[in-house]
Design brief:
- The chain has 109 residues and is mainly α.
- The chain has one domain (3-106).
- It has 7 helices and no strands.
- The protein has helices at residues 3-17, 26-35, 38-47, 51-57, 61-72, 78-87, 91-106.
- It is globular, with a radius of gyration of 14 Å.
Length: 109
Amino acid sequence: MRRAPLIAAVACLALALGGCEADPSSPGVQRNALLAPDFIASTAAEASNDPQAKWLLKQPKSVRESYVHEVLDKKGDKDLLSQRWLLTQSDDVRESYVSAVVDPKLGGP
């Protein structure tokens, strides 16, 4: 049965993407989850409680790859790199972020 290792890996990815600092290799785990095939990334998204991680993992692989290359692989302030990355994305990507992450926190539409 190959499902047990896959479920364990997805749980680990979800924890790492949710900001768990217990695992010092979590940046590598984040990178691997974001570069994984869509079905693995979407499974990890469902296991995550973090709205931002959930949103990013549900994006097309090309969007996730650009996040890895423009944020995780770059040196510098990750918050600023992440903001810069989001602001340079297409209208559709930015609007989906607002709908999935920002509006729920504001209690909006």
